[in-house]
């Protein structure tokens, strides 16, 4: 996993900056409860999304384990940022009306402890909102990159932690019901063939870490043969689901 203390200074700029943060916050708001509520942004990072939830009628809290990230988040959400581990949240049970988890679950070897903690701090009738299927977000059906990577993704992407089917099974076991879903664009986040190959070779693509090395090498070779090596393909369409307690 990345050293997020080291990444903090340039994290926002390298992840779509203000346009992506605005799109993410707008999408989350479509799934949040109406009226006054307490919103907890779990793994809030730099707070670039968290600050957009601030409303007179809402109490907004952010929690993250990286001091570097929290230093930036505290400037954006004064008095609302807490250091803590997502698997051991520093909040009482039944404390918040909504938990928001954006771009975290795909990084975790096992997301269930974090999801269980999120469910614990939710009040009855509260909503858990999380990104899912992050790796699928990058692949438009007519993309040449989608075609090159299709077999590898079909066999190995189901093993990644943030698959929506897995989360929905967990939710049903916990008594949480599906309460909505939406998408938002990752503006400026579309990768080029060269960008994909470099990300795969650097071990940053989770479903590739489950695949045999020879198959990964073959995909990288095919990516290198695509035209327009430095031309970004379509922006990803990130997915959010809401689960109600």
TrEMBL record:
<keyword id="KW-0489">Methyltransferase</keyword>
<dbReference type="Pfam" id="PF08241">
    <property type="entry name" value="Methyltransf_11"/>
</dbReference>
<dbReference type="GO" id="GO:0032259">
    <property type="term" value="P:methylation"/>
</dbReference>
<feature type="domain" description="Methyltransferase type 11">
    <location>
        <begin position="40"/>
        <end position="129"/>
    </location>
</feature>
<protein>
    <submittedName>
        <fullName>Class I SAM-dependent methyltransferase</fullName>
    </submittedName>
</protein>
<keyword id="KW-0808">Transferase</keyword>
<dbReference type="InterPro" id="IPR013216">
    <property type="entry name" value="Methyltransf_11"/>
</dbReference>
<dbReference type="GO" id="GO:0008757">
    <property type="term" value="F:S-adenosylmethionine-dependent methyltransferase activity"/>
</dbReference>
<dbReference type="InterPro" id="IPR029063">
    <property type="entry name" value="SAM-dependent_MTases_sf"/>
</dbReference>
């Amino acid at each position: 996993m990345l050293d997020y203390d080291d990444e903090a200074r340039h994290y926002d700029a390298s992840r779509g900056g203000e346009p992506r943060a605005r799109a993410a916050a707008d999408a989350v708001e479509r799934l949040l409860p109406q009226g006054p509520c307490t919103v907890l942004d779990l793994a809030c990072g730099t707070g670039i999304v968290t600050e957009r939830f601030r409303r007179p009628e809402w109490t907004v809290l952010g929690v993250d384990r990286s001091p570097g990230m929290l230093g930036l988040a505290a400037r954006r959400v004064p008095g609302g940022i807490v250091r803590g581990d997502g698997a051991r949240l520093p909040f009482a049970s039944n404390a918040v009306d909504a938990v928001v988890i954006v771009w975290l679950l795909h990084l975790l070897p096992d997301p269930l402890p974090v999801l269980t903690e999120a469910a614990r701090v939710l009040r009855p009738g509260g909503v858990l909102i999380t990104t899912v299927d992050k790796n699928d977000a990058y692949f438009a059906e007519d993309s040449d990159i989608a075609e090159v990577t299709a077999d590898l993704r079909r066999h190995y992407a189901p093993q990644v932690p943030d698959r929506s089917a897995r989360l929905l099974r967990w939710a049903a076991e916990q008594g949480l019901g599906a309460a909505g879903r939406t998408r938002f664009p990752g503006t400026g986040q579309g990768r080029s063939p060269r960008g994909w190959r470099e990300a795969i070779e650097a071990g940053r693509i989770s479903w590739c870490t489950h695949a045999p090395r020879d198959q990964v090498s073959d995909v990288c070779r095919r990516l290198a043969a695509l035209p327009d090596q430095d031309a970004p393909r379509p922006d990803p369409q990130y997915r959010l689901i809401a689960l109600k307690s």
